[in-house]
Amino acid sequence: MKHWIQAARLRTLPLSVSGIMVGSLYALANPTNNILTPTQVFSWTIFGFAMLTTLGLQILSNFANDYGDGIKGTDNEDRIGPKRAIQSGVITPVAMKRAMVITAMLTFISAVLLIYVSFHDKHLWYSLFFLLLGGLAIASAIRYTVGNSAYGYKGFGDVFVFVFFGLVSTLGVNFLYSKQFDWQLVLPAAAIGLLSVGVLNLNNMRDEVSDTKAGKNTLVVKMGGAKAKIYHYCLIIIAMVLVLIFAIIYNGIGFRIDQYAFLVAYFPLLSHLKTVYNCPEPRALDPQLKKLAISTFLLSLILSMVLIF
Questions:
Q1: How many structural domains is the chain composed of?
Q2: Which ranges in the chain belong to alpha helices (H)?
Q3: pLDDT tens digits for range 230-265
Q4: Which pTM does this prediction carry?
Q5: Nearest to 68 by CA among 182, 151, 169
Q6: In terms of residue numbers, what domain contains 241?
Q7: CATH number at residue 136
Q8: Residues 21-57 pLDDT 10s
Q9: Mind telling me which residue stretches traverse the membrane in this protein (predicted)?
Q10: CA separation (Å) from 253 to 42, 242, 248, 259?
């Protein structure tokens, strides 16, 4: 059990639910989908199944990464981070593949239940669209490193993370509540997506040498470490600006300090950027993965609290 918990990489889970929190509590803070007859659109049932589905996708992605990199030999003695399950031999490839199948099935069931409690027997086209989206999310989580055409080995991992852990997570879950699109939410959704990409980019910066040797052509390998740092600064800074713009638009005229309490989370983000700037070698970036993931979760949590209070 200890090895399976390690393979699930619990430290990545708070990051994966950041978009769900913001999209859900935005729905709670804006309890109307009809101007003439205001109604509460938030539902704890939808929130629960959305959390389960997102956590399932993240764990599936972690299992798939362990399996894909393990059987390809990408996880080897050159890898800087903690040893993976297949790499260390504590879990066999066959057992990991079985776990991926089980996790994918459970995640799909959770997604189907999420869609049902959101739309019931109404909005058939919405249901079919989200069912297709759920299938794509599961397939994308697996195909990141698994298979001969794994897109993570071609530098497209950043796109997947931005779309599914930013836009789909935040905007998608909010739509499940409200049945309508809110353009304001694009700003924090994109910000969470960019910060999530930042975590992936940091991971790839750390593994640049080993990935290059293994033929894993991540975006960092393609652009080089120096440009990857500049790319990283842009990801974090643009995300911070987007959240600030969202707060200004959302709060409108007037200023209350509590409405901008999320700015507290900017301090660890700025400290992180300073550390990355002064980093002498990729190996020293490993502790920053956890720091950036927790900072993103903290920002999302405080922003969510600001929305409802």
A1: 1
A2: 2-8, 13-16, 18-29, 44-72, 85-88, 93-119, 124-143, 157-162, 173-178, 186-206, 208-214, 219-223, 225-251, 266-277, 286-308
A3: 999 999 999 999 999 999 998 876 677 888 999 999
A4: 0.92
A5: 151
A6: 1-308
A7: 1.10.600
A8: 999 999 998 766 554 444 578 999 999 999 999 999 9
A9: 12-29, 41-60, 99-119, 125-144, 156-177, 183-203, 230-253, 289-308
A10: 26, 18, 8, 12
